[in-house]
Amino acid sequence: MREITLKGGILCAGILAAAFYAPAVWAQTPDAKVADSQVKPEDREAKIKKHFAEMAETLKLTKEQQAQLDKNREQRKAEFESSREKISAKRQELREALDGTQLDIKKVTAIHNELKELMIKREDQHLAAILEIRQVLTPEQFAQFQKMGAERKGPPHGEGHDTGEKKE
């Protein structure tokens, strides 16, 4: 019986440690994102325009398609920027709450929940943008668009890593 209690205590301690450690790790931003957030808005806009020009050339967009995609992007630009700023501010708030001298678990949890909600809204915005793009592009262009996105971002998390399994 004592062994079960000891194992249960260790398991409970591990779960609690993970629960407190996960938000701290999640609140950290990778160096690339930190560097990107420090880029001047006009430099970011120039980078985006260059990317879209390259994409238009690769996908062989018609002038009508290009105009529609530009219109859609302009309509969503403020929405995306607002989401990015809110998420960045909420991450900073979470870091500060975790780094404070007094840990207020309820406050940290509330901030973390607000951050998750903001990220869900951003994902909804992202999906809506992709659906708009899908309506403008031909099936072949959209397939190429997806391929370009995958190449740009690399393999999804967990894929493309050595798992120790033999490949045939």
Please tag this protein with its features.
168 residues, mainly alpha, Four Helix Bundle (Hemerythrin (Met), subunit A)
Top CATH class: Mainly Alpha
**Overall strand count:** 0
- Percent range for helical residues? over 70%
Total of helices:
6
Question: What's the structural domain tally?
Answer: 1
CATH architecture: Up-down Bundle
Q: Could you name the CATH topology? A: Four Helix Bundle (Hemerythrin (Met), subunit A)
Q: Enumerate the spans where pLDDT stays under 50 for 5 or more consecutive residues.
A: 9-35, 161-168
Shape verdict: elongated
Beta-strand content estimate: under 5%
Q: What is the gyration radius calculated from CA atoms?
A: 22 Å
Distance between the termini: 48 Å
Q: Average pLDDT value? A: 77
| SSE run | HHHHHH
- Oligomerization state of this entry? single chain
Largest sheet: none
